[in-house]
Amino acid sequence: MTTADLGGITPLRYEERPDSPWRRLGLDGQTVNPIPSMISSDESLYLHWLAREYYRGEGEIVDGGCLLGGSTLCLATGLEANQHVFPKQGRIHSYDLFQFWEGFRGHVLPNDTHLKEGDSLLPIFLRNIQAFRKYVQVEPGDIVTKRWTAGPIEIFFIDVAKSWQIHNHLMREFFPQLIPGRSIVVHQDYFHYGCWWIHLTMQQLEEYFQVAHNPCGGTLSFRLLKKIPDEVLRQDFSKAFSREQIEVLMDRAIAPAEGVLRSILLSAKACALAEHKAFEAAAAAVEEARRVEPWDDLALYDVIHAEAMVPGDLLYPKIADASTVVAASRRYVVCRQNEAFCAVSRGEAGCDAACAPHAGSGVVSCQSLEDVSRVIGERVLPVPSATILVGSHRDYNLLWYAGRVWGVPLRLGHVDIALPRNQARHGVLCGRSCRELIGMIDGKIPPAAAPHPARAWRRWLGRLFGP
Ligand SMILES: C[S@@+](CC[C@H](N)C(=O)[O-])C[C@H]1O[C@@H](n2cnc3c(N)ncnc32)[C@H](O)[C@@H]1O
Q1: Tens of pLDDT, residues 316-331
Q2: Core-most of 145, 283, 299, 322, by most CB within 10 Å?
Q3: What's the gap in Å between 159 CA and the centre of ligand 1?
Q4: How far is the C-alpha of 422 from the C-alpha of 110, rounded, in Å?
């Protein structure tokens, strides 16, 4: 987008701006949003301000993806304090699956929650927003199955565009109801590696939008300038972009961003290209993402997840067996070498079975990932596709794979936990942390059902709860 389209907000930075209108309200993010939530303090204040000061009641407020009600509460308290809009009842429409997913454990829900995969979160949501219930129409279920019949939409908060399919549905069903010159679209997943459809689409539709606000977090919001023709919104966006367009549109999205936001958008570009099987260009994009200065460790999560979409032999051509790569930092990749972890400088990546003796020439060898991190002085994260034996407890081996810890009974011998059929084997346990898994083995925590095996890895990559 051009500087003019950025509405004067340039560069895009990951920072709280004390002079932003939502900060000038003098409120505290934690007070406005005390609910365990995936939105930041600045984003909470921003949503509150939008519903309180910006909203004129010319259309409805859509709260797309509200989880336990964090975004809902911010919007509802804002609406309650709004001096211009009457009546206010039912003006917020909150959409969510309201289903427990293991990824929520230890994050927005306690480690020892008794909820199982698929259990309803609706009672928790309703309890959390109880005092503001009258402002909210709750729409439980898959948003792709929902029709919008409530007229114009003035504020469209989107924290639910987790796939091309959902994104297409939002464009077809909800976007036609946006009010030119008035409506704000809040893309909460804009600064995230895994929602490249948002960048591609918003850039393709740039003549219709102007960047409105850039609160600190994953959010970039847009004001609709003029009506978007229905035939444009009805297209299948997943098939709309050639490889060349992806490069051009993503570069335009990246241009105004600095620091961690730039690394994140470059990671999103890598994913978009990898989906298009343009793997060499994708590898170049993640390389650029890692080189961004000033570097912020916050970006490592996005960079490593984007790298997971690129074949290892392109990312680390000199590493003899890319499947031995189990973790990475900004400047190092970490291979598993028998009992040791071997960190190899990416610049000098020449690791093979004999890398440990080269310690001192860009290679270090350690007993644990924590040691690696301490020695190289960088944050280290496991790569999502790696399987790591993290320890054992009683008669179980504990393996790290696809963002979870798996308990494999010793009697099963060596088991490749990456294989869905092995994840489903009798006795195999799955949890979010070692502590949780040990609790299951000790019988203190009920065993959680393993995620549907075939979906475990896709979900880890595709369900985006990071930002
Ligand atoms: C990042 S979380 C939302 C966080 C929330 N806005 C907050 O303030 O904490 C994304 C939400 O999207 C929901 N979701 C994902 N796919 C969905 C779908 N197809 N239909 C409805 N909700 C969906 C998830 O259940 C999840 O609660």
Answers
A1: 877 777 778 889 999 9
A2: 299
A3: 6
A4: 28
